[in-house]
Design brief:
The complex is a heterodimer. By secondary structure, chain A is an alpha+beta fold. Helix content of chain A is about 35%, strand content about 20%. Chain A has one domain: NADH Oxidase (3-Layer(aba) Sandwich), CATH 3.40.109.10. By secondary structure, chain B is mostly helical. Helix content of chain B is about 75%, strand content about 0%. Chain B contains four helices and no strands. The two termini of chain B are about 25 Å apart. The chains are: A alpha+beta, B mainly alpha. At the A-B interface, loops of A face helix 1 and helix 2 of B.
């Protein structure tokens, strides 16, 4: 799929069919994630693929923003030990940026493969960490819901008046 | 719905409410009403499977909420209108009964 098409046609999908996402597809998605830009090549991310219905349900119960019926999840986590070791106190923020960029790669690749996705931040990080049996230095940052799209929503309106040339001007703000 | 299934559903709902309460401390203002009305939808899902004279009402209210709730992200006025409508529908049901 052409990159431009993937960028502009990807939507947040929340309604999925029952069809499974294969382990091979999930590996392809994670592979796209690990090729995202990363500050100082720290690669502070960890990816938990979840496909078991009971495990998905347990995570969903503790994730108010996870609306819909995904058949797979990728929990994108930062490794806070690695981030701190490589970048000190600022490493946590850099890890968050890196996880976000990896997530976008995953969602674009998913769209490329005909897989619907929706990224979620409204979940309880400590609760999800507990469900994943992850140690305290593993911080769940984003959860990507995945599945075969059953319904694709219309694109929401975008604010196009956010571009400035060379410098900030009052006239250019919020037109 | 068996007592066991209802209990399991309510147990899930507690998880949703608790994590919503904590999450809303740091989340956008409109997420509060969204979580509450989504919680009503989840409760209706459980109640409409019970032997109750109100089953059709629960099903209708859930359908209305689920159809309109995502407007919270695209059309604030439409979302508020949905809440107004749901309140009115619930009130009429109370008066009728």
């Amino acid at each position: 799929m052409e990159l431009k098409k993937a960028i502009f046609e990807r939507r947040s999908i929340r309604q999925f069919t029952d069809a499974d996402i294969t382990p091979e597809e999930l590996e392809m998605l994670v592979h796209a994630g690990i090729w995202a830009p990363t500050a100082g090549n720290i690669q502070p991310w960890l990816f938990f693929c979840v496909t078991g219905p009971e495990q998905i349900h347990n995570i969903q119960v503790l994730s108010p923003g996870m609306l819909g019926n995904p058949t797979a999840l990728v929990c994108v986590c930062s490794d806070l030990n690695r981030a701190f070791e490589k970048a000190g106190e600022g490493g946590k923020t850099l890890a968050l940026f890196d996880c976000a960029m990896a997530s976008q790669n995953i969602m674009l690749r998913a769209h490329d493969l005909g897989i619907g996705s929706c990224v979620v931040r409204s979940f309880n990080q400590a609760a999800v960490r507990t469900i994943l049996k992850a140690p305290s230095h593993v911080q769940p940052e984003l959860i990507i819901m995945l599945g075969r799209p059953a319904r694709v929503p219309n694109p929401p309106k975008r604010n196009e008046d956010v571009l400035f040339w060379e410098e900030y001007t009052e006239e250019g703000e919020g037109k | 719905m068996s007592e066991h299934t209802l209990q399991a559903g309510l147990f899930d709902l507690i998880g949703y409410m608790l994590t919503s309460a904590r999450g809303l401390v740091d989340e956008p203002r409109l997420y509060g009403p969204f979580r509450l009305v989504d919680g009503v939808s989840r409760l209706c899902t459980l109640l409409e499977q019970e032997a109750s004279p109100h089953r059709d009402f629960f099903a209708g209210l859930r359908e209305k909420i689920d159809e309109g709730k995502f407007s919270v992200m695209t059309d604030e006025k439409a979302f508020i209108a949905l809440l107004d409508d749901a309140v009115l529908e619930y009130t009429k049901k109370r008066v009728e009964d």
